[in-house]
């Protein structure tokens, strides 16, 4: 009834259930979000069997364990827990399987839903798992002792657990020289601090610690703000909201008019800032 093939062999008292179902699916394509110059150009697809074969092709070792399970009382979504037996900590594997097997949900439609169900709740919203669309990146973390969970219907692999440096690395770092890869990582760390602290530093210096700025720069800032009716803190908040609106417009608006709207918003935002 499920489209499988049953093989009977003479003199054997049991049969073999072989999965031979065929259906239309997307072919393996290049990654869209994690693009590299030097490195493989393959990405996960929605079919879980294709995804496990991509990992198995890279790690051709008997210690690579892929355990299948179903989540969801109604959908019975197929999931695969991947780990390397002699590298991954057994306590980590047991914890991942315990959280997956004890999910009391009716349906599971994507890997994003699974991430929200298995992670611990925290007030700051710090990510505890990492998702990737690259089989080579998932394999790299498998060799580092992590657990990768694949969900049928999702072209992403979920890496458990994740640390801070996982979000500051690129799949291309392993294909570059060590000195240049470390330079890029330091540059990403610096970018994180600039992104987090620059708006607050700008408000603090221009509003409360103006003596830090050179006189010429301070006069230029004051002259540019003479005709602005809003305080600096409100201007910073409007800037942050404008950036989010531009990002959402680029993602959600249909592609024929999305770039046009995004460019027009960028030009109007630049002119208002000037």
Short key terms for the protein model shown above:
274 residues, alpha+beta, 2 domains, five-stranded antiparallel sheet, two-stranded antiparallel sheet, 43% helix
Please give a quick description of this structure.
The mean pLDDT is about 85. The protein is an alpha+beta fold and about 270 residues long.
Oligomer: single chain
Largest sheet: 5 strands, antiparallel
> Unreliable segments (pLDDT under 50, ≥5 consecutive)?
none
Structural class: alpha+beta
Number of strands: 7
What is the helix content? Answer: 40-55%
Strand order, biggest sheet? 3-4-6-7-5
End-to-end Cα distance? 67 Å
| Nearest-integer average pLDDT | 86
Count the domains: 2
β-strand percent reads 5-15%
Question: Would you give an account of this structure?
Answer:
The structure is a single chain. The chain is an alpha+beta fold. The chain has two domains: 151 residues, no CATH class; 99 residues, no CATH class. A hairpin with a 5-residue loop joins β3 and β4. The N and C termini lie far apart (67 Å).
What topology does this entry show?
Layout (H helix, E strand, L loop, with lengths): L4 E4 L6 E4 L29 H11 L5 E8 L5 E8 L5 H12 L9 H8 L11 E3 L2 H9 L3 E5 L5 E4 L17 H30 L7 H10 L7 H21 L5 H16 L1
Antiparallel strand pairs: 1-2, 3-4, 4-6, 5-7, 6-7
């Amino acid at each position: 009834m499920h489209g499988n093939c049953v093989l009977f062999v003479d003199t054997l008292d049991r049969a073999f259930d072989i999965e031979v179902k065929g259906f239309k699916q997307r072919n393996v394509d290049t990654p869209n979000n994690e693009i590299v110059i030097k490195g493989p150009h393959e990405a996960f697809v929605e079919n879980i069997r294709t995804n496990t074969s991509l990992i198995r092709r890279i790690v051709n070792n008997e210690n690579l364990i892929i355990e299948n399970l179903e989540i969801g009382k109604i959908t019975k979504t197929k999931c695969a827990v991947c780990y390397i037996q002699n590298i991954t900590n057994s306590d980590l594997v047991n914890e991942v399987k315990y959280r997956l097997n004890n999910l009391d949900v009716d349906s599971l439609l994507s890997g994003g839903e699974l991430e929200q169900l298995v992670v611990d709740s925290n007030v700051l919203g710090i990510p505890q798992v990492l998702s990737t669309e690259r089989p080579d990146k998932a394999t790299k973390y498998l060799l580092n002792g992590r657990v990768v969970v694949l969900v049928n219907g999702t072209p992403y692999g979920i890496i458990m657990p994740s640390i801070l440096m996982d979000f500051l690395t690129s799949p291309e770092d392993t294909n570059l020289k060590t000195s240049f890869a470390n330079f890029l990582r330091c540059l990403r760390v610096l970018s994180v601090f600039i992104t987090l602290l620059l708006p607050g530093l700008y408000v603090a210096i221009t509003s409360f610690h103006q003596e830090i700025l050179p006189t010429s720069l301070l006069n230029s800032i004051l002259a540019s703000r003479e005709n602005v009716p809003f305080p600096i803190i409100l201007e910073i908040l409007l800037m942050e909201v404008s950036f989010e609106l531009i990002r959402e417009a680029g993602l959600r608006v249909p592609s024929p008019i999305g770039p046009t709207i995004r460019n027009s918003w960028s030009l109007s935002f630049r002119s208002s800032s000037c």
